[in-house]
Amino acid sequence: MLTEEKNQENLETRSSVNFIEAIINEDLRLGKNNSRVHTRFPPEPNGYLHIGHAKSILLNYGIACKYNGKFNLRFDDTNPIKEEQEYVDSIMEDVRWLGADWEDRLFYASDYFDQLYDWAEKMILDGKAYVDDQSAEVIAEQRGVPTAPGIESPYRNRLPEENLDLFRRMKAGEFQNGERVLRAKIDMASPNMHMRDPVMYRILHAYHHRTGNQWCIYPMYDWAHGESDYLEGITHSICTLEFEVHRPLYDWFVDQIQETDYRPRQIEFARLNLSYTIMSKRKLLELVKEGYVNGWDDPRMPTISGLRRRGYTPEAIKVFAEKVGVAKRDNVIDVSLLEFSIRENLNKTAKRVMAVLNPVKLTITNYPQDLTEDLITENNPEDPDAGMRTIPFSKELFIERDDFMISPPKKYFRLSPGKEVRLKSAYIIKCNDYRLDERGEVVEIFCTYDPESKSGGAGSNRKVKGTLHWVTVAHAIDAEVRLFDRLFKVENPEDVAEGEDYKTNINPDSLKVLNQCKLEPIMANAIPGEKFQFQRIGYFTVDPDTTPDKLIFNRTVPLKDSWSKSAL
RNA sequence: UGCCCGAUGGUGUAAUUGGCAACACGUCUGACUCUGGAUCAGAAAAGUCCAGGUUCGAACCCUGGUCGGGCAACCA
User: Fold this and answer.
1) From the CA of A189, how many Å to the C1' of B53?
2) CB of A436 nearer than 7 A to strand B
C-alpha cells in the first residue's frame, strides 16, 4: 500500500477507532514497550482456516501496518496428536493469499520447547511448579467446580529436588502417557478455574510434525502461548473472547519470566459468526470426513480455501472484515454482507461475457443463412480501461430458457410471442412463432430481426423493455457450471430440536450442476481462477477441476435479482 | 447461587470521551439503463435492556436489577 494512501486512510479513520486501537493508542501514549506494536496470528495446525480466522489475520496484520509495527505468523503446535503438516501448508497458503506478510517471521511454538523446558525447571526450583502423580480424572475432581473451591493435591508440597528429578524422568521417557503431569502451583481456591494449579506439561509419546520423537512431554496452551509471545516480543496478543478467563493465568506465567519492562498484553475480541454458516473447526472437519462436502476447499465451505475456490478475492474479504468491525459483543453477521463485498469488488473488475446456462434454440428467420457478423461489445462497462472485444452473431442462437414465455405475466420484460427484445450488443428481435415437442416443451423460437437496430448503429436508439444475453449455436462452446447455494437451510444451523444436530439443517440443494451450458467462444481461453460476470446471471470463476477438454465454472454469487424477488 | 465479559434500528459498527444517536448491509419507493446488474434520488426502521441516582444536560458516570455469552480437557 502506498504511504500516501495509508496516511489518507489514517486521517479518515482517526475519529473512529475500534476498542483495540484505543487500547494501543493509550499504550503508545504511555510509552509502553518502547512504543513498539507487534502482533501475531497463532493458528493451531489442526484444520483449515475459515473466514473467522481471516478476520483475525486481517485485524492483526492491519494493526501492524497501521502502527508501523510487525506481524508474525506462529503455529501453536503443542499438541502433536491433532496437528499435521498438511494444515501448516494450507494455513501458510491462505495467510499469504490474504496478503498478510510475516516477512521472515515464521515461528512455531515448538521452536521454544527447549526454552520452555528450562523455564519450567526454574519454576520447579522456585517452588512454583510440581509434579502430580494423579490421574486426569482425580485431578479434575480435585479442581472442584466454579461455585466451590478445589482441594490441593497430595503431591502439591513435594520438595523441589524430587519434583526436578521426576520432571527430568518425565522428559526422559520413563513414564507412560497420563502417568504424571507438571502443574503450576497457584491457588486451588481461586474463583477462576484456570488458576487452580493448571497443568503445564503432559506426557505424550507421539510423533510431532516438526520435532519428531525428540519430546515426549508437551507444554499446554496456557504455558506455551504467553511465553511464545514474550519470546517474540509481541506487544498486543489479540485473541477471541473465550480466552478472557485465561488472561490472569497468561499474566501469571509472564510474571514468572519477565526480566525487563517489556510485557505482552492479551486483548480479547468477539469472534465472527455468519448466518447460514457453521464455523467450528471440529464440525467443518466432520463435514469433510463424512462427505457432506468435497473437501476443505469445497466452494460451499466457509474456509478461506473454499471461498477462494468459490471465486472470492482477498480484496473482497478485506472489505468485508472492515465492514464487520471489531468489538466484544457476540454477533451474527448476515451472509448478505459477505455477498455484497464480493459483488462490489467483482462488479468493478470482472469481465462481462455471454453465457447461456439453460439453453433453448432461437432462429432468426429473416437473417441470412451463411452470414456471421463480428459484433463489438464492452468487456466491462464499469471499467473504461477494460476495452472491447468481438463476438460472433448469426442466424441460429441459444438464449436462456427462462427468457421466453408463451403467456407471460404482466411485468415480464423478456421474450414472448409478438413481443420485441434486444439481444445484447446485437439487434432487436421480434418473436413470431415457436415450436413445441410432444411433451409441450419449447424447442425452438422463431424471430425476425430489425437490421436497422444494430447496436451502435444509426437506428439503434429504439427503446425496448428487455435485453437478453445469447450465444450462437455454431460458435458456442460447452461448459459445466456448478451453482452453489448456502450449505444450511436455516439462519442458525445450531438451532435444533432435542437429540438432533446441525447436520439436520444441511441444505440438500446446495449444489446444482448444469452440463449443457453454452458460452461465447472467447471463453475457450479461460484459465482456472479467472473471474467473469456471466451477463445478467452472476459472477463465475473457473474451477481448478477444469481440463483442456472440459471447462468448469463455479458460481461465486448471483447478480441481485429484483425480478425473481418481486415474482415471489 | 462463584468468577469474567457483554447489551445502541432486522444485522453489524459508530457517536469529538457528558452536548441534537450516525454509517454500512438488508428492506421498500422512484429515476435511469443495450445487464430486471450497476448508478442516482428518497423512505421506513433504534430513542440506546430495565429502575433509580448524579448533572443545565447521560448511550456514555454511579447503584441495583434483567437478559445473553464464557469458565469445571493431561484441547487450543
Assistant:
1) 37
2) no
The closest nt to A203, taking CA to C1', is B74
Instruction: Say how far apart CA A499 and CA A287 lie, in whole Å.
Output: 19
- Cβ-contact A423, A398 below 8 angstroms: no
User: What is the ipTM, given to two decimal places?
Assistant: 0.96
Residues 6+ apart with CB under 8 A from A329: A270
Per-residue model confidence as pLDDT tens digits over A265-302: 999 999 999 999 999 999 999 999 999 999 999 999 99
∠ CA(A192), CA(A258), CA(A204), 5° rounding?
60
Which pLDDT value is given to residue A564? 83
Cα A70 to the chain's mean position, in Å? 23
Q: Provide the annotated active-site residues of A.
A: 44, 271, 281
| Minimum-distance nucleotide, CA of A15 to C1' | B16
Residue with CA nearest to B16's C1' atom: A15
Which H or E run includes A447?
strand A442-450
Q: Per the structure block, which three cell numbers stand in for A166?
A: 521426576
Neighbours of A193 (CB within 10 A): 14
For the question of whether the overall pTM of this predicted structure is more than 0.90, the answer is yes
Q: Is the CB of A410 under 7 A from strand B?
A: no
Q: Distance between CA atoms of A150 and A224, rounded to whole angstroms? A: 24
- DSSP structural state of residue A503: G
Q: Which three cell numbers stand for residue A505?
A: 439443517
Phi and psi at residue A436, in whole multiples of 5°? -110, 155
Q: Within 10 Å of residue A293's Cβ, how many Cβ atoms?
A: 20
Find the Å distance, CA of residue A244 to C1' of nucleotide B4: 7
Strand partners, A547: A550
Nucleotides of B under 7 A from a protein CB: 1-8, 10-17, 24-29, 34-39, 68-76
Q: Give the CA-trace dihedral at A385, A391, A397, A398, to 10 degrees.
A: -40
